Amino acid sequence: MKDFFPVLIQVGIVLGFGVVTLAISVLLGKSAKRTAAKDMPYECGMIPQGEAQPRFAVKFYLVAMLFILFDIEVVFLYPWAVNFKSMIQTHGSGIFWSMTGFLALVTFGYVYAIKKGVLDWKKS
Questions:
Q1: Short-list 15, 111, 20, CA closest to 66
Q2: Residue 34's pLDDT is what?
Q3: If phi over 0 gives left and psi between -120 and 50 gives alpha, with beta otherwise, what is residue 91?
């Protein structure tokens, strides 16, 4: 429990800061009457028209998921490559073949995405 005491102090300071900041904002802030004109978003002097959030095509989300997939691949690949020599000495060549299998699986997913046209921006 003695090791967690500094963490508890930090959590207390953070919570106290949040509560004090909100309390000062409420006490010292100017309270104004809300009107429909004041609650409207300011769009460079233009009257806002249409929905607040436009719909995005599914393609944007697919590309985002592919980016996360390949970004995580690099996250796993970099430490493996840095420690490759020491891992070969302790684990043998199995470590190489396991990463080769991982890269083959990711490459298969990439080729599958290309075949499905996920990365083709001309299609809607």
A1: 111
A2: 73
A3: alpha
User: Which tokens belong to 121?
Assistant: 């921006």
CA 20 to CA 26: how far, in whole Å?
10
CA torsion, ordered 69, 72, 73, 78, to nearest 10 deg: 160
CA distance 5 to 2: 5
Q: What tokens does 67 get?
A: 């980016």
Which pTM value belongs to this model?
0.48
Domain boundaries in the chain?
2-31, 58-116
55 conformational bin, left if phi > 0, alpha if psi -120 to 50, beta if neither: beta
